[in-house]
Here is the input.
Amino acid sequence: MKQRSNWYNAIAHVDADCFFAACELTRRPDLKGKPVCILSSQNACIIAKTYDAKAIGIKTGMPIWDAKKLMPHAHYLSADFRYYGLISDKMFSVLRRYSPEIEMYSIDEGFIDMNGIRSMWGKSYQGIADHIRESIYQEVGITVSVGISTTRILAKIASEMNKPNGTSVIPGRRITNFLREVPIGDVPGIGKSRQQLMKKLNIHTAYDFANNPKERIDFTLGKVGMDIWHELNGTPVFKLELNSPMPKSIARTASLGVVTSNKQLIRSHISYHTTRVATELIRQNLTTSFISVFLRLKSFESVGKNVRITATNDYSRINHIVKVIFNHIFKDNTEYRACGVISSSLQPDAQQGNLFTSVQTSKQLALTKVMDDINTRFGNQTLSPASSLKKETLKVKFQYPLLTAT
Ligand SMILES: [Mg+2]
Here is the structure.
């Protein structure tokens, strides 16, 4: 690997620790130090959890009954994405003080262009990162982990290294040694199937990957692999997306990991994708009026349907619609390999930022808190918002032709 100087480029990755659970703790301080799991709508499965719940073996996507077997004494709370969106806004407004160049990468992760800001703060990068962590903790009430290095991928790997509430700074000269400690599966973009391929090539660490001839990586992984290769070698490929234009659609799709006909399992994947789509809509202050769900069969053919709705980013509504479409397209005794949820016809959320809505939002928050309190005391589903009980009949409009989503 090429020897680098220390700070020819500086990017920070800031990542909140157990974000959804941490948000809940800001309004439920009585739960601090106790295991907390956040549930998808209809409280079907776990979508986030605290570290102690994780340590017992509770995983994201796990059905609630399995989790309750492992950890009957944990606190199970219904997700409240509107509230998580507010906490996310607070976190990003703190980050904007440090540099004007910020990319909101997800609801709880951002990249910061750090070039030239050491003199402004009179601190080292380590000092600035620690200051960021402290300010977010003081002002927002959650902890974050910070990684600083010379490329996005290196910064993202670094922020994982010292979780929770830690800082990792990897200057150019330390990249080579740092990569030796990073298992290949921890490199963003190397999922399970690529990991297996890497094993065949005798690539076990990020260092093995970065030290392979680039022609070999190009041959096996193509452009994706080359981008990762350059970034691991300290050459920035990905610029920060500072003013991301309004997306045409927000899609969350993935392989099921297995070929299966298990409806419950596929349903839990769909539920997870729905969560992520709804979170992203709220984060970007957007509404959707077109929801699509698709399933990819074992044969790689796809079936899907979509529904036009009045513009919304309300999680329970979107989830309800997704469920209706899913039940419509799912066929028993059929094997599937992938699935996804897509929202399109996106519009800026007109309600956002108007005074009247913020009053409503705080009322809504107070109501949710009361519901949470009662549900925690008497078991979940004792109370749920009336809207989620209302039977909504939907007409599924038309069959999708083959849908290729990324
Ligand atoms: Mg996070």
Notes: The longest helix spans residues 355-378.
